[in-house]
Amino acid sequence: MTESSFRLSRRDDYYLFGFVGLFLWTSFSLWFYLFLGGRHFLQAFVEKCLAQCSALMTLSFSAMDGVRLSLSLGLFVLLLVSLAKS
After folding, report:
1. Tens of pLDDT, residues 32-68
2. CA-CA distance, 84 to 10, in Å (whole number)?
3. Residue 77 in contact with residue 84, Cβ under 8 Å?
4. Which candidate, 49, 30, 29, 51, places its Cα nearest to that of 41?
5. What is the pLDDT of residue 5?
6. Measured between alpha carbons, how far is 80 from 75 in angstroms, rounded to an integer?
7. What CA–CA distance (Å, rounded) separates 49 from 36?
8. Domain boundaries, the chain
9. Model pLDDT for residues 13-31, shown as the tens digit of each residue
10. DSSP letters along 18-77, please?
11. Cβ-based neighbours of 16, under 8 Å, separated by 6 or more
């Protein structure tokens, strides 16, 4: 076994560096586009929530609606606590 059988040739090194560079470039591009897409989705989500919140503020709620909402939320929290303990 000679030393040259374990050593890659210079041409193989260029191919290796080329494939590594291509892999790094495509992975960087992929993560960059995912970041931009996530940022766009988050911005649209916040705008939609703000539009819904302003629409909710124009509705008139009575005291009975507040009592019903608090009872419903309380029952939901109790259900979650009982499920977590079991």
Report:
1. 888 888 888 888 888 888 877 776 666 666 778 878 8
2. 62
3. no
4. 49
5. 56
6. 9
7. 20
8. 3-85
9. 778 888 888 888 888 888 8
10. HHHHHHHHHHHHHHHHHHHHHHHHHHHHHHHHHHHHHHHHHS---HHHHHHHHHHHHHHH
11. 8
Overall average pLDDT of the 72-81 stretch: 90
Question: Coil, strand, or helix at residue 80?
Answer: helix
**Can you read off the two tokens belonging to residue 29?**
């591009």
pTM: 0.35
Structure tokens, 11: 């041409």
Tell me how far apart the terminal alpha carbons of the chain are, to the nearest angstrom: 66
Please state whether 9 falls in left (phi above 0), alpha (psi between -120 and 50) or beta: beta
Q: Which residue has the tokens 């790094």?
A: 24
